[in-house]
Amino acid sequence: MPILTFPIESRAVNSLDRPRFFPSIVGFYFVFRAGLTFLFFQADPVTGTVVNIAIDLTLLYGAVLYSAQDQTYIRHPLLQITPIRWIGALLAFSLISVLWTGAQSLVAALAYWMGMAADVVIVLQLLRHSEPEPCAQGLMKGTVWGAVALSLVAWCAPATPDLRLGNDAFLHPNTLGLEIGIATLIAQYLAHRGARWKWLGIALAITLLRTLSKTAIIAFVIAECWYLVQNKQMSRKIKLRIGAAALLVVACSWSLLASYMDVYNNTGSGNQAETLTGRTVLWAVAFSMGMEKPWFGHGLYSFKTLIPAFGAFEPVHAHNELLQQFFEFGVAGVVIAAGVYWFFYRQASRAPASELRALALALLLFSLLHGVTDTVPFGLSYPLWLLTVLSLCLAQPATIEGRSS
Fold first, then answer.
1. Would you say 361 and 94 are in contact if contact means Cβ atoms under 8 Å apart?
2. Cβ atoms within 10 A of the Cβ of 210, count?
3. What is the per-residue pLDDT across 226-270, written as a single tens digit (0 to 9) for each?
4. Predicted pLDDT of residue 36
5. How far is the C-alpha of 24 from the C-alpha of 349, rounded, in Å?
6. Which residues pair with 5 in a beta bridge?
7. How confident is the model at residue 109 (pLDDT cuts 50, 70, 90)?
8. Burial of 382 (0-12, 13-18, 19+ CB in 10 A)
9. Number of neighbours of residue 104 by Cβ within 10 angstroms
10. Domain boundaries, the chain
11. CB atoms closer than 10 angstroms to residue 44
12. Buried b or exposed e, range 390-403, using 16+ CB within 10 angstroms
């Protein structure tokens, strides 16, 4: 049985022998990689994908070396953590689906799966060594810094024709919205560990609004309100200040928001297929084609190949998480995805009240709402690596709660 190991007493290796910054580098990369193709490989996106996967595998090798120095462990059955079992099932079934995939390139499908699986294995390796606390925090801090760097790239790039941050082809505003929304909630979780996290969270929230990603903004506002209500350690005065600051930012951005809505309502963001009405057409086509193979779907990476273009719009995913799972993995995929979310919710809701528990549930709410009208081509809106980190931390309640910045 696969095992996850945790320390029992003293460290077997001097902590100075291990680079403390490595988990932060991993977290940074997991977010910032969304902008690598835009920055360096617009002329050859395939090469950008190859480089991304190569970096993933390099980090996996580094994670193995990082944790290999420890010698003293408690053997802890990894499969006793139910969400981890379901994440494993999702990875296993998506790999098996390559046998019948309708993807144009089998090699590409396998490569994308390797990258997705490598993310999960990397964090499992990092969190199994003798200091899981700084590793978990390092991953989260790296996530925030990665989102900050990604935001700087977006701010420096020309805006899209419909006034949003990003690039429609290589750094989509909706991708920015998902990554920055997750990082903003994490920055707020880290805020009591240092003022810099509070200010970075504010900067990320402003950037999220500037992306004009409607799905991410609405999901974030609801998740943020829930998080503030659940956070008992934050005073009412601070919560009121956060609300007032949010209203001030929206007021200052009102002219931009109004201009964007005019463009959106009149031209459909440049393409009618990208409006809500257009998405319903995409949903209808995806569901109809999904019903051709309802039980096990068309296979990994098949959506982009099989779904026809809608004029100039070539969808790479279904803009709905469950529909994406249904198209590529059928009813089996929907059941597995629902199982991942449900058992993670059960684990988090039964965990002792803490900031970590509130963060895990806020991110779950954000991801579920985001998945109603948008999703990602691989995995889930709630990144599998982040689900793995939080599930392991919740299984060890003292893992990162007591550690200061």
1. no
2. 25
3. 998 887 766 677 777 777 767 776 677 666 666 666 666 665 444
4. 95
5. 27
6. 75
7. very high
8. buried
9. 12
10. 3-10+18-395
11. 12
12. bbbbbbbeebbeee
